[in-house]
Each structure stands twice: as structure tokens, then as C-alpha cells.
Here is the input.
Amino acid sequence: MERKWFIVYNGQQVGPLTKYELINYGLSPDSSVWCQGMPDWRPAGVIPELADAIGMSPAGSMPPPPPAKSKIVAGILAIFLGFLGVQYFYIGKTVGGIISIVLTLVTCGLWEIIPFIQGILMLVMSDDEFNRKYLYSQSQFPLF
Here is the structure.
């Protein structure tokens, strides 16, 4: 069973989270973290399991596995079906998909322009930027 972690984020304790969910909170070597069994809070960089997750192991271990969602698929979905919020459902942001549907209805379809532009931007941005902005972001409705 995977360990559940807590992190101090903006002065508040957040958790429980998996070690990969910690990345959403800007996990760095100096981030204060704790999990059951630890006597007190420690910097993430001194915990081997988390040091591996942020790619700072002296043994040169691999960074976290890349997300399983393709920016190309998300971009194409945004261009052709963005008015239905399909790109948000694809990347796991259900709230964003629902908001997109509501905006399409409320604006009588004018909202379609925004996801079209968003899709083009998704296709031209780097994979790292896409992952950070759309997959690792805490926002349920990331636009640009």
C-alpha cells in the first residue's frame, strides 16, 4: 500500500496525498512533509522516497513517470469538441468540463472560440508546460 503524505503548503497542512500528488503542491527539496511513522516534519529532500520522486537522488534515479495523457489528443479535442469540455474530461478535470458546457449554453455558443484557441495553444506548448499547466495543476478549470 502506498504511503500517504502531508505537506505544508502556503502555511497550511494539506493531505493525505500520494507522493506524486505532492508534486501538485510544488514539492521541492525544502518542502516540509510528514507521514505516519515519522516522528516529526522533515524536508522532502532528506527522505529517499521523495528525493527520488523529485529527481534528486544521488544514484540518478528517474523522475516521476510521465502522465498518461497526451497533449496532442487534448489539443485536438479542445479544437473540435471544446465547446462540450471534452478536453477537460480527457485530462481528468470533470469540473472544468461541466463549466465549459454551461458556458457554451449561457453564451449561446460564443464560448466555442475560447476552447478553439486553447487547443491551438496546447498543440504548440512543450510537453513539460502542458503537464504543469493542465495535468499537475490544482485548478479544475485551467484555461491558458
